[in-house]
Amino acid sequence: MALTLFNDLTKRKEPFVPLQPGKVTFYVCGPTVYDFFHIGNARPFIVFDALRRHMEQSGYEVTYVQNFTDIDDKMIHRARELGISVSELASRFIQAYEEDAKALGIRPATVHPKATEHIPEIVTMISEIIRRGHAYAVEGDVYFDVLSFPSYGRLISQSLDELQSGARIDVDPRKKHPLDFALWKAQKPGEPSWESPWGPGRPGWHIECSAMSSKYCGETLDIHAGGSDLIFPHHENEIAQSEAASGKAFVRYWIHNAFLLIDAEKMSKSLGNFMTAREARRHFSPLAIRFFMLGAHYRSPLNFSEEALKQATAAVERLQSSWRELSEARKSRPEGQPQEELRQALAAARRRFCEALDDDFNTAGALGALFEAVKAVNSALKDNREGDLDALQQAEELYRLADAILGVFGLDRPEDPAAAEDAAQIDALVERRLLARKNKDFAEADRIRHELGSRGIVLEDTPGGTRWHRAL
């Protein structure tokens, strides 16, 4: 089946058809780099990284853009707290993002634009919005005129009156309408600023994404994605200002993930009920965190808990154990008779895996299909001393496909040279333990097992010898 996606603009699931055949422009709102990103932020980063992978595996050429917001009120306030410049703050936490994202298997975007490096594009877009009669300048600030844009509110499906009654708005008598939002902010004492036709100042948050997305993806994007908390006002404002500037449809498919919850509340820094991704990595394997995020449909709320992460850890261990058993069997087992039951199970699992991903990117369904394959592989390896090598190759191909898209096996992670050196030491200790057991020195064998266990190494004694792997 062809890929379908739930489009938040039309409120229905639609076949995905890119503007240009075979090519996809895909913009995802990135972090505001004033702190480590929390585990709730990690959900869209992981989910949309996986969707990008699926599209690439499906043969699309994907231009994937994820920005860094490196100038806004939060950036300025945090830099003051720390006694450093805004640029120093941004540099520190962009590096931190890259470290945490890499650990979680999030691939770098095609481009990671920074707002401060696109001031000319932002100024040009604001000037065009003013020229077309959709914005006005007052005392060095520039505001978007929402009354000039009749379809304002269509993404969130509310009228101006409904939005105004439900919003917390600072009263500013200079605005034509309370919902008018800032495109450009006049410089305040001590703030970073850039020159503009309206005087020194800095861009508003919303215009940054519009300018950067149009530069790298064109005036009409195939996909714009982010957390559901961004629907209003951020994405609603992006639509208004982008379409006011270009006169063209801004985005064809709007996709949003549901909140990550903790104790049934949205996880957020403002509520104080959050854990940074960096802290979560100290307690749980990055693979387990990734599995947890993909274990529910992206449009369903997901409740964060220690128990849920423990279950994800056990699931990843099962996947990796099956991969190890499969790899060993392909190397060591003699060719046997065709195992039709295994072949049929693998074919069905692969079909269901792909169908789930094509059905509004249902990663939970895809993982369910993957575990059907794992069950069939494990059963076949247990019940047969010989191997249907063609079937085992099919299983390996499915596991590799699942890892290429979902990244839950960890097969494509680069080998750390230090880890390779460590592996040689572990191999030597395993050999010493085998020798101790052969000599019936069981106390020494137990001591070595305990030493390896303290380093996170799990030993498996099998008829074919002792194997080891790192605990998650």
Radius of gyration: 26 Å
State the end-to-end CA separation.
35 Å
- Spell out the helices and strands N to C: EEEHEHHHEEHEEHEHEEEHHEHHHHHHEE
Structural class assignment? alpha/beta
Strand content: 5-15%
Q: What is the percent of helical residues?
A: 40-55%
Total of helices: 15
In short:
The chain has helices at residues 39-57, 73-82, 86-103, 119-131, 160-166, 205-217, 231-246, 277-283, 286-294, 306-332, 340-358, 363-383, 389-406, 417-438, 442-454; strands spanning 4-7, 12-15, 23-28, 61-66, 135-138, 141-144, 181-186, 201-203, 221-227, 251-257, 260-262, 265-266, 302-303, 457-462, 465-470.
Structural write-up:
With 472 residues, this protein is an alpha/beta fold. Helix content is 49%, strand content 15%. It is built from 15 helices and 15 strands. It has a four-stranded parallel beta sheet. Strands 5-6-7-8 form a four-stranded antiparallel beta sheet. Helix 12 runs antiparallel to helix 13 (389-406). The radius of gyration is 26 Å and the shape is elongated.
Quick tags:
472 residues; alpha/beta; four-stranded parallel β-sheet; 15 helices; 15 strands; elongated
Layout of strands and helices, then pairs:
Layout: E1 4-7, E2 12-15, E3 23-28, H1 39-57, E4 61-66, H2 73-82, H3 86-103, H4 119-131, E5 135-138, E6 141-144, H5 160-166, E7 181-186, E8 201-203, H6 205-217, E9 221-227, H7 231-246, E10 251-257, E11 260-262, E12 265-266, H8 277-283, H9 286-294, E13 302-303, H10 306-332, H11 340-358, H12 363-383, H13 389-406, H14 417-438, H15 442-454, E14 457-462, E15 465-470
Parallel strand pairs: 3-4, 3-9, 9-10, 11-13
Antiparallel strand pairs: 1-2, 5-6, 6-7, 7-8, 11-12, 14-15
Helix pairs in contact: 1-13, 2-3, 4-6, 4-7, 6-7, 9-10, 10-12, 10-13, 11-12, 11-13, 12-13, 14-15
